[in-house]
Amino acid sequence: MIEHELVRELAEKNDSKIMMLVADGLGGLPMEPGGRTELETAATPNLDRLAARGTSGSSVPVLPGITPGSGPGHLGLFGYDPLEFKIGRGALEATGIGFELGPDDVAARGNFCTLDQQGRITDRRAGRIPSEESVRVVERLQAVQVPGVEVFVRPVKEHRFVVVFRAAGLSGAVADTDPQATGVPPLAPQPLAAAATRTAAVAAEFVARSRSLLADEPKANGMVLRGFAGRPALPSYEELYGLRAAAIAVYPMYKGLARLVGMTLVGEATTLAEQIAALRGCWQDYDFFFLHFKYTDSTGEDGAFDRKVGRIEELDAAIPAIEALGPRVLIVTGDHSTPSRLKSHSWHPVPTLLVADTCRPDGLTGFSERDCLRGGLGIFPAKHLMMMAMAHALRLGKYGA
Question: What is the C-alpha to C-alpha distance for residues 119 and 187, in angstroms, rounded to an integer?
Fold first, then answer.
């Protein structure tokens, strides 16, 4: 990636701090034509105030019209071209819970689901069973064996788990088994390349044996697998930007992504207040800080417009505590849009705000989708955001004579 070569060449060290606050799935849509989005509806006095100081724009996570998953969405924000650096969700989940993937490993993220007597999905998330119940169900799955393959099953959070298959010659080129719908059965694992034929067969055997074992479970009696992947090779933040990077996240997948790009995981926060406390505690030890806020995404996926509005307002209320730490550069953005109207990720550009003393204010006094479309950053590829952050932190030297 030519941008990486350039950044390595120009990167300079100083004592400036860069803060990236990622509200997962931040962007939205009106529930009806002419209405307001979740962000436009929310009372966000702190973000509006920052918008008047900084420069706003709309970031495109991958390419126009392409709906990203959380992995590609975050990779773009971190400055890695998601079309060049591909990370399967399974690798993210496994790494996020501290599972060290080896060279012969293929990981998949699992969702427990509820099946009816005909094997059709009635709930894709098994009623979002609590984590303690998921731990119990995963413990039952330790009895599942597939000949010739080591199988590791680990709980993640709520209805999510990770399964890792270990054997020589496995490939992550296997299609997801989640049909993304109810009233139909889970899909069978299908190889996307000849090299993955065995992996698909292994996954199918695991699913079949698991379903037999879990037949008496009231909610988690089935599963879907997504994001089959081995461990990717990525340059670290230290190698690329010369930054000591810290990550403060609640959900394992985002911890996994941070670890894969060389960030240090800080704290064991479960609430936004605890995340802010962890940020405050590590402020002197790092140069770059990634704080992930999940709930603007999960409420959007649930189609809960009002609850997403509430979560945005919760995030806005935390802004003064972050400002008090004195970051040279403060970025507020999302990895993708998750409109409540669609109940899913979408392709829409993401509202983005960059605040620094070196910004050219663009005349905006609010932070929303409509405002950001008129902002000074324009509509830009998300992979360029880190270069802009480095420049405003005075961490990039001049290019050429």
Answer: 11
